[in-house]
Specification:
about 240 residues, alpha/beta, Cytidine Deaminase, domain 2, five-stranded mixed beta sheet, 6 helices, about 20% strand, binds zinc ion, DNA-binding, DNA dC->dU-editing enzyme APOBEC-3C, CMP_dCMP_dom
Length: about 240
Amino acid sequence: VTGPCCPCPSPRPHPSLPAGKGSRECSGPTRVQGLCSADASGNSSSEDSPSVFTFLSFAPRNPMKWLDPQTFYFNFDNLQYAYGRYHCYLCFQVEREVNGSLVHVDMGVFVNQSADDNCHVELCFLSWFYAWLSPDERYHVTWFMSWSPCSQCAQQVAEFLKKHSNVNLSIFAARLYHFKDPEIQQGLRTLKRTGVQVAIMYFSDFLYCWNNFVRHGGMRFIPWKGINKNYWILVTTLEEILW
DNA sequence: ATTTTCAACT
Ligand SMILES: [Zn+2]
């Protein structure tokens, strides 16, 4: 019943994460893999130990290669009142430095699977990336997200980057997730302070995603009404959050 | 103009 990569015979709930669902934060896994021998001594760490990589509790999952055009248009629409966007999509690009220039490594798309393990896309990426990244390479990672990160994921990403100084991250968000929430705002500031480029997706970013992550079958990208006006509203909001 | 949002519900 356990995943293939869990050496533990009987997974038990993560000690520091609530079992309940429904939070807008990434409320943690419903099953635990990895971390099995780490805390077997009964030495329960304090409640919100920031040094714990909770993404390690999620089994690595492979990304998708492509988005369908209608999925992209619906989920990356940067409209102000984004009703019904109940999922988050993350298009990523990983490059590495070779003699001072960037070489393509991989790209793909993650979407959270709430029915599966409730893993937010940010942690899906970290779980997947952590499984194969080399400490001897310098990586440049770019995220194009339909929603900006929640506060808990922001903390996790910041911790990850502090412990992996060979990884550089840029985040471009189509929309700002719960931007009036002080904890969300703090999470975005934490990312910036950690060296992450945090920005709003512009026309050229949408076009780039269309060309590289959408199964467009030769169709041209047709921008939606208000794409630029919405961008400027979001940029203003983000600048106020980041100071 | 609205006040949504990495669901939850059948
Ligand atoms: Zn999250």
